[in-house]
Amino acid sequence: MSQVFDLQVQILPEHLDELGQVQQMAYLAWMQQIAQAHSTHLGLSLEIFQQLKHAMVVVEQHVQYRKAAFLADQLILRTWVSKTDSMHSYRDYALYRAKDAAIILVGTTKWACVELSTGRPKRMSPTFIQAYSALSEQVNPFDFTENTDF
Length: 150
Hints:
By secondary structure, the chain is an alpha+beta fold. It has one domain: Hotdog Thioesterase (Thiol Ester Dehydrase, Chain A). 21% of the residues lie in helices and 33% in strands. It contains 3 helices and 5 strands, in the order E-H-H-E-E-E-E-H. The protein has a 5-stranded antiparallel β-sheet with strand order 1-3-4-5-2, with helices on one face. A hairpin with a 5-residue loop joins strand 4 and strand 5. The protein starts with a strand and ends in a 19-residue tail after the last helix. The mean pLDDT is 94.
């Protein structure tokens, strides 16, 4: 069963816009980065995708920006699988500031399983369905007190 997965985000000057706050494209890149890292953690690396001849690709993304983030901020990006059906998985995200647990953004990405050789939709294999199982309802992904890794 999937659990929450955290990644410490390093804000660099190139992530900032002309107002000195983190720009939108940096957030999207971090969401992609943590999705790949979490997938690998769940046993589905690029090499496994290639062996199985199918992979997950983004088909829809929603992001809600709640606060600005700046160069000095220490951020933690959290992700988890919230729902899975035979062809899709839905991954949620929460980016929060470490010092006060203020939520910077929340988001959801809909991923579709595709055949690598054709790019056409494909039902997820049992390996994918098992790895991308939804987070237990007993786990609160917005409880940031559990993070002691950083």
